[in-house]
Each structure stands twice: as C-alpha cells, then as structure tokens.
Design goal:
The complex is a heterodimer. Chain A is of the alpha+beta class. Chain A folds into three domains: 206 residues, Aldehyde Oxidoreductase, domain 3; 325 residues, Aldehyde oxidase/xanthine dehydrogenase, molybdopterin binding domain (Aldehyde Oxidoreductase, domain 4); 147 residues, Aldehyde Oxidoreductase, domain 4, CATH 3.30.365.10. Chain A is built from 21 helices and 28 strands. Chain A starts with 13 loop residues before the first helix and ends with a helix. The model of chain A has no long low-confidence stretch (mean pLDDT 97). Chain B folds into two domains: 76 residues, Roll (Ubiquitin-like (UB roll)); 83 residues, [2Fe-2S]-binding domain (DNA polymerase, domain 1). Chain B has a five-stranded mixed sheet with strand order 2-1-5-3-4, with helices on both faces. In chain B, a hairpin with a 2-residue loop joins strand 1 and strand 2. In chain B, helix 2 runs antiparallel to helix 5. The C terminus of chain B is likely disordered. The chains are: A alpha+beta, B alpha+beta. The interface between A and B is large, with 61 and 61 residues. Chain B: This is Carbon monoxide dehydrogenase small chain. Chain B: It holds the Pfam family Fer2_2.
C-alpha cells in the first residue's frame, strides 16, 4: 500500500459536516434543559449600587437569577494560567460575576435561567441595575500615568507586570552608525470564530458528576481549572468540546461563563445551556493583540545590524486572561530579532490593566507582534541606508550553517534555511522585473508597492520543563493511545482538540502509514476528558509537532508488539520480521507471513501469545519534545493604492512557507490561506474601537469588518521542507504562520507604495480614509 | 408572550412538518429547535454572517431574517436535504474535494448561498463567485478553496444539465437520496 503521509487526501471529517450531521454545542438538546443568559455591564467602570430582579423573576418561565453577591463563597475566582515569573505580576481576582464593581463593558452582572431561549432574553431586559459610573482607564499608555483611574484600587499605575529580557551594553548602542526608531501599534482585534462560545452543564446528583460541554480548545485545561473554581473533583468533572466552529485562540481561555453554567446546572439539578450572542462575543470573549511597540534598530551603514531595543506596552484588559500575561512577554519578547542574526537584543514589557475586555492569545499570540515590529523596522532601516529590503534581510539572516541557532534572547531555533523560501518566492514574483515595473508605474503616477516579510515563528509548545520555567501553569506534552480492535480496525485517541484543522485526517494519515492499513479503518477520538488521558489541547500550532508525534510514537509501539506476536506465530526471531504495507514477513522467507488483521485478532484473543506477554494490542505514548519548533518563510505582497480614494487593492499574494515535513499539503495550504486572511484582516480592515469612556464602538458585525471573499486576490502558496529534528515526524506548526507573516508583508507593501510621500507608518487597519489623508498631506507638501 | 402561538406548516426537504410556535420566533430557531434540523447554523445577530442561509421557495434566504410564521406553507430546503452521505450534491462533493471547509460551521449556509448564485449565474467567473459571497463570512478558509469548490460544482452541474438536455441546476437542489425530516 502506498504511503499517504505527504499526499493531499480529502478530509475524513467532511462528509459529516457537509450533510448537516455535525454536532455543535447549540445542537445539543437534553431533557428538561434550561436556557441561560448573562446580563452584562453597559459601563466600562462603575459601582453596582443595587440589583433588582423582581420583575424578571415574576415572568412565568424564569427559573432563577443569580448575582455576584449570591455566588460569593460558592464559586472561586477564575485564575490566569500563565503566571510569568520575575515581573512583579499582580493578579487581581476575577469572580464569575462582578460583586460590587464592574470593570469593563461586558463584565457579567447577573446570570438568568429560564425555560426557553426567548424567555431568558425577556428576563434580561427586566433586571434593573443601579450603577454609579466611574472614570475609566482605556488606553494602556494613559492608564499608566499618574492620576489615571485605577482598575483595581491596590494595583498602582494599573501595572499588572513589568518584564525584561536581555541587556545591551552602552558601547554597542553608541558604536552604531545608524539608528532607526519607530513606534508601532498592533491594534486590538477580535478572533471572531463564526460559532460563538457556548456551554452546557448537566449534573447527576446521584453520582455527583458534572458534565460540561463547552467551546474549548483545551478541555483538560478547562477541567483542571474549573474543578478548582467549582470545588469538584477532577474525577467527577467531565469536559467535552463538541464540534467547534473555529477558535483562533478565543476558545483557549477558561471564562467565568463556563463556571457559571456548571454551577447553575448543579444548583438547579437540571441541564443548562448558554449560547453567546455575536454582539455579546465582542465584549465578553477575550480579544487579541493591543500592544504599543517602541522599537530601536541599531547597525552600520553597510547594513550589518548590531542591536534591537524594544519596549512593549500591552493592554491586558480588566483581568488577566488564561494565557494573557505570556503573550507580550515570553511569546513576544524572546522573538524580537526574528530571522536575523542580530547579536544584541533587549525587551521591556509593561502589561497594563484597563477598563476593557481582557486580551488573550489570538492566532500567533505575540509572534505576529514580534514579527510585525522587526519586519517593519528592517524595511525602514533599508530605506534609511538606501538598500533593497531583500538585500538587507539576506545580509542579516541567521545562516543555514548556524542551526540549531541560538538567538540573542537565548531561544534555540531548531532548523532553518531562510534563503530557500526567499529565493523561491522571489522567483515566483519575478522580483527584479517587478521592481522595474513599479518604477515605470510610479512615473505614470500609479502607486504600486511591494512588501516582503521573511518571518520565523516559535510554536509547537513545547518542552514542559521550559513551560514550568516561564510560569505556564501546565505541562505541554501530549498523549495518544492507539487501540487495535480484534478486527484490525483502529481507534486513535489524541489529547489535541481540533476545531477545523483536520486532525482526524492528518493523524489518520500518520497511523495509516505506520500500520499499513486503509484510512477508512482508522477512527480518531478527541476532546473528551473521560476518553482521553491528561493532555493540553490545541493552540500555539502544537497539534501536529507534539500531538501528531505522540500518535506516531504510539503507533510504532503497536507495531513493535505486533512484530513479537508475528515472530512467535511464524517461529522466527522478532528481529527477523519485516513489517511492510500491513504484512509481517520473515526476512528471506516470502511465503511466511501474517497480516496486520491476523495479528490484531491473535493479540486480542490471546490464545497463543509469547510467554509473559500481556494480551491486547494497544499502546499509549506521552511525548514531551526537547524543544519548540520554528517554521519560517517568505511572503511577498503587491498592492496598488488608489490616489483618489485611498483604497488598497492587493494585486498579488505570494507565500512560500517552510513548516518542516508536510503531512497533508491540502490541509496545510488551507491553514496558510486562513492564517493569511486573518493577518491581512488585521492590516487592512479589522480593529476594535473604544471611546475614551471605554464604550466599544465596533461591537457588532455591522461595525467590525471581517474579511470577505472579494477582498482577496488568489493566494499563490507553496512550501519548502526543512525537517525539524525535535520530533519523529520532522513536522513544524502551520496554523499561525500565515497570520504572523502577512501583517507586516501587507503593511510593508502599502508603505512602499506610499514611499513617494515620505510616510513611514500608519496605524492599522489601513482604512481608505487614513491612507487618503496621508496622500492629501503628501500632495500638499 | 400574551400573543397566542401559531401553527406553522412547511414542506422541508420534501416532507411536510409543522409545529406551534411563538409568532416572534425566527425561522432559523423553528428549524433548529422545533424541527430538529440543526445543520443550519447561527453565527451572528445582525444578519451579516449568512451561516443560516437556506432555500425558501427556491431562493437563498438568511433564515434569521424571517419569522417562522412568514414561512408558513413555504417549501424549504436545508443542508439536510441537499444530498446524503452516499450521494452528495455536487456542491457538497466539490467542497469536499477542494477543501472548501475547515470547521464546517459556516459551510451549510455558504453552500446554500452558492447554489443560489449558480441558479442565477450557472457559469460565474472567479470574480463573480467572490462577489456572490458578499452575504456570507468564513473565518477559516480565506475563501480561496471555496471559490475552487464553487467553480467545480458549477462545472459538474452544467455537465449534468447538458446531459439532461435542459438547464436543471435548480432541480438538483433537493438531493436524490432520502429526505430527512
């Protein structure tokens, strides 16, 4: 049988999803199920003076109303899971409902339970809350200033954390011939999966077991955290992530809402369902980014870069989210040198509390921001010294011979050959000709821009001992069980929790090759804490390099045992057994063989096993990688800016990504496309807008632009393959590369187009109005 | 609440179904909660995302923009009526082959919207497909493979129509398999 790893197989998950047979949270109906809704604060900052729920409780279908005071002492605060060390981290407790003070628009004030999804919303309107509005701290740099309103009274200057990594000697900075400085704002955006968040709780008073179906990218983290919050044994709390309509980081977090639903189901003894509304999602679900990044890049006139100094002021919102503290510190600050061999680096990060929705990991989490600042500033440096941006990048790339390469902040990049995808991408766009055409178009008065991003990304979390050292409140290994049934059909259990990535297919491909059986003989099980051993879930592009590797190792163990059984049956030594395409054969004796299915039956019947061997054919693996993985690549964007309207049209989008060994080129390319769409979305269209009072002005899909199909040209995507040495698959992560690479590529292209006007930066998103204004000012001069 | 429930009867995926509902109930909730047709999804509350798109009397409609009572006596097709696992509709088959879906949440609505597009324009250009997707949002795919899927579906449906000697793209709407209720 031909190997399937590396081939573009159609996905196993699709027939179900294409025929309406998916099972998403809101599809679950349980007998006697109640519906929940959460009343949320309309104020960014206010005292709660009084809550009157009498009118709501009089509605015939309303079952219960809970306030923060009702729940005091009954549900614990929701802790952050990333307690970054050595940064004076101050974690303010976040109770599932605000008790006497609301701290952001969207902060939960009351939980309402009713018989029907319409009735519960009627009830929300009848709850009367008396607030005393307080001044709000909204933007991070202002929130740090003396006299700014305090989000938490005991946290001075609203500073949640102050983190530093790396030092640069004065002589290094003083000896630089060139310094380029810029301040970039990587604006707040919303992950916006098309399925919003949801939770359903069901409690069995007889057994004391609570089952929680919820939109989680990491059900075991939810179980671990919520068992503490709700005071229930992990052995009696079952968390299941049903089919999920996307996540993008927004469903990593353990939210107050899930704790509330679990609590209410237990308290009322009836199943309770909560489905987040889209407009609610904008204020109640964690946002991404919101970092002000001040960069200084030092070097020589000939283009040799010597140092980079960065300050990141990050808006963490009103509370520390599950991963929030790690994003602008570890994820960002250790990657500020990007793909370049810059010998000296330092990063200082302030994490700031504000009266806004908390921020958390969003596709790329810190790496898009790190890539943004280095890829933007290197272009400005090239402009400063009059060098082509490609040449400057090449001159400073960490060289192929240096891998595993240690960057200035101490991270060890597993493998890399940055020239390879760059060269390929340049050939695809025909770079030199493109630059000539650009010159000619400029003469005709047309604004054409070419933008490049040669990124590297840290992902595939990761070694658990490193996780511990950087304050992550969990391990980051993965587990898998490969269970062979008597018929030879196989069930594979994985601790990753897919929600669109297609793990059933890619992991199935890994197992099909290992066991020499058809894809149709393999079923995958994910996302249920009762079925799957402790594990850590899907985020940080870790599923294939860590979870897929665990699957491969477990499958190898199955083969190892099966070989011994075959050897026993064929009266040969195990070392003399060759296993190929599902057949066990004695070396040099072609007729002597057993099929995988025959061995599966023999193992499960256990009538005639080697002396001392345990029955059954099943293996489990726990894989903790020795290092992260570092995918890289080159994205090149060509844009045209309309002088009259400020509109930007993407003419070409070319990307060459190196994500190590590709398991399924079709799904890998799908990940790249989707990642690019979100990154380009950040650059051009998406952006949270808060008023100075902390009101979210972009709080519906009428006010917040999610990218549409007509916004994009065809993406010209391809791969190079530089295997990773840190897992048996040689694979790296692919889910976040597109987002990480595309934001600066698009921005660099537009800045290149606007070069005749001398403009160096415009805050994202590049709305036509902003671009038009810059052109008008430039024309005026 | 003081208003009495109304009986709403529809023909959905070839079967007559009815339920008593509040007059304010949205068509999408009627389909999902009362008829158990959960293949049609809800992604927003302002009619932007199009995840709930179905066919009402042959036209693609966002089922969150209609009340159930307005659909009384209508012919509806939801994703459950498109094709079966064994006999997928060309649009479903093409989405599968071209990797036109990732999480699959927007997919039923997008497929319905695209079937609506092909009814009006059986041979759309890439640009026309992209513009035809104005009413739907996919957050996973970046749309490119959806475009490929629609192009492929258009080709299959045009070939089938040519074979039958008439433009029957529309008649393929309800799959040949069993009609699920």
């Amino acid at each position: 049988m031909a190997n399937v790893v590396g081939t573009p197989l159609k996905r196993k998950e699709d027939p179900r999803l294409l025929t309406g047979n998916g099972r998403f949270s809101d599809d679950i109906q349980l007998p006697g199920m109640l519906h929940a809704a959460i009343l949320r604060s309309p104020h960014a900052h206010a005292h709660i003076k009084k809550i009157n729920a009498e009118a709501a409780l009089k509605l015939p279908q309303v079952v219960a109303v809970y306030t923060g005071k009702d729940l005091e002492g009954k549900i614990g605060p929701i802790p952050s899971s990333w307690l970054v060390p050595d940064c004076n981290l101050k974690e303010a407790p976040q109770y599932p409902l605000a008790i006497d003070r609301v701290r952001y628009v969207g902060d939960g004030v009351a939980l309402v339970i009713a018989e029907d999804r319409y009735a519960v919303r009627d009830a929300l309107d009848l709850i009367d809350v008396e607030y005393e509005a307080l001044p709000a701290a909204v933007r991070q740099k202002e929130a740090m200033q003396e006299g700014a309103p305090l989000v938490h009274d005991d946290i001075e200057h609203n500073i949640a954390l102050h983190w530093k990594a790396g030092e640069i000697a004065d002589e290094v900075l003083e000896s630089a011939e060139v310094v380029v400085r810029e301040s970039f704002y990587v604006q707040r955006v919303f992950p916006s999966p098309i399925e919003t968040r949801a939770a359903i709780g069901e409690y069995n008073p007889g057994s004391g077991e609570l089952t929680l179906w919820c939109t989680s990218q990491n059900p075991h983290i939810h179980r671990m955290v919520l068992s503490g919050v709700l005071g229930i044994s992990e052995a009696k709390l079952r968390v299941i992530a049903p089919d999920m309509g996307g996540g993008f980081g927004g469903k990593i977090g353990v939210y107050p809402d899930e704790a509330l639903i679990g609590y209410a189901a237990r308290d009322l003894g009836r199943p309770v369902k909560w489905i987040e509304q889209r407009s609610e999602h904008f204020t109640a679900s964690n946002a991404g980014r919101d970092e002000v990044i001040d960069v200084e890049l030092y070097g020589q006139r000939d283009g040799a870069l010597t140092a980079i100094r960065v300050k990141n002021t990050a808006n963490l919102g009103a509370y520390l989210s599950t991963m929030g503290p790690g994003v602008a510190t570890i994820d960002f600050g250790l990657m500020i040198t990007g793909a370049y061999d810059i010998p000296h680096a330092s990063c200082e990060t302030f994490g700031v509390y504000t009266n806004t929705t908390p921020t958390d990991a969003y596709r790329g989490a810190g790496k898009p921001e790190a890539t943004y600042q280095i890829e933007r500033i290197i272009d400005l440096y090239a402009r400063e010294i009059g060098m082509d941006p490609v040449e400057l990048r090449r001159k400073n790339f960490a060289p192929k011979e240096a891998f595993p390469y240690t960057n200035a902040q101490g991270l060890i990049y597993d493998s890399g050959d940055y020239e390879k995808p760059l060269q390929k991408a340049l050939e695809i766009v025909n770079y030199e000709q493109l630059r000539q055409e650009q010159e000619e178009m400029r003469k005709q008065g047309k604004l054409i821009g070419v933008g490049i991003s040669t990124y590297v990304e840290l992902c595939g979390f990761g070694p658990s001992k490193v996780a511990g050292a950087i304050g992550f409140q969990g391990g980051v290994w993965e587990n898998s069980t490969v269970r062979v049934h008597p018929s030879g059909k196989v069930t594979v259990y994985s601790g990753t929790s897919p929600h669109g990535q297609g793990h059933a297919t890619t992991f199935g491909q890994i197992v099909a090759d290992k066991l020499g059986i058809p894809m149709d003989d393999i079923e995958l099980v994910f996302s249920d804490t009762r079925a799957i051993s402790m594990s850590w879930g899907t985020y940080g592009s870790r599923s294939t390099p860590v979870g897929g590797a665990a699957v491969a190792i477990a499958a190898d163990r199955v083969v190892e045992k099966a070989k011994k059984i075959a050897a026993h049956e064929l009266e040969a030594a195990a070392d003399d057994i060759i296993f190929e395409s599902g057949i066990f054969q004695v070396k040099g004796v072609p007729g002597q063989q057993r099929t995988f299915q025959e061995i599966a039956k023999a193992a499960n019947m256990a009538w005639n096993l080697p002396e001392g061997m345990e029955p059954s054919l099943e293996a489990q693996s726990f894989f903790d990688p020795e290092n992260f993985v570092y995918p890289f690549g080159t994205h090149i964007v060509v844009v045209e800016v309309d002088k009259e309207t400020g509109e930007i049209q993407m003419k070409r989008y070319v990307c060459v990504d190196d994500v190590g060994r590709v398991i399924n080129p079709l799904t890998a390319e799908g990940q790249v496309h989707g990642g690019i769409a979100q990154g380009v979305g950040q650059a051009l269209w998406e952006g949270a807008v808060y008023s100075s009072e902390g009101q979210l002005l972009s709080g519906t899909l009428m006010d917040y632009t999610l990218p549409k199909a007509r916004f994009f040209p065809p993406i010209e995507s391809s791969f190079t393959e530089t295997p990773s040495p840190v897992n048996p698959l040689g694979a790296k992560g692919v889910g976040e590369t597109g987002t990480t690479a595309s934001i600066p590529a698009v921005m660099n292209a537009v800045m290149d187009a606007l070069k005749p006007y001398g403009v160096k930066d415009i805050d994202m998103p590049l709305t036509p109005e902003k671009v038009w204004r810059v052109i008008q000012e430039g024309e005026g001069n | 609440m003081a208003i009495e429930n109304r009986k709403v009867t529809v023909t959905v995926n070839g079967q007559e179904r009815s339920a008593e509902v509040e007059p304010r109930k949205l068509l999408v909730h009627y389909l999902r909660d009362d008829l158990g047709l959960t293949g049609t999804h809800i992604g927003c509350d302002t009619s932007q995302c199009g995840a709930c798109t179905i066919m009402v009397n042959g036209a693609a409609v966002k089922s969150c923009t209609m009340l159930a009572v307005q659909a009384d006596k209508s012919e509806l097709t939801t994703v459950e009526g498109l094709g079966t696992i064994d006999h997928l509709h060309p649009m479903q088959q093409s989405f599968w082959e071209e990797h036109g879906l990732q999480c699959g949440y927007c997919t039923p609505g997008v497929m319905m919207a695209m079937i609506g597009l092909l009814q009006e324009n059986p041979n759309p250009s890439e640009e026309e497909i992209r513009e035809g997707m104005e009413g739907v949002i996919c957050r996973c795919t970046g749309y490119q493979f959806i475009v490929s899927a629609v192009q492929k579906a258009a080709k299959i449906m045009a070939e089938a129509a040519a074979k039958d000697g008439e433009a029957v793209a529309a008649s393929q709407l309800v799959g040949e398999g069993t009609h699920r209720g």
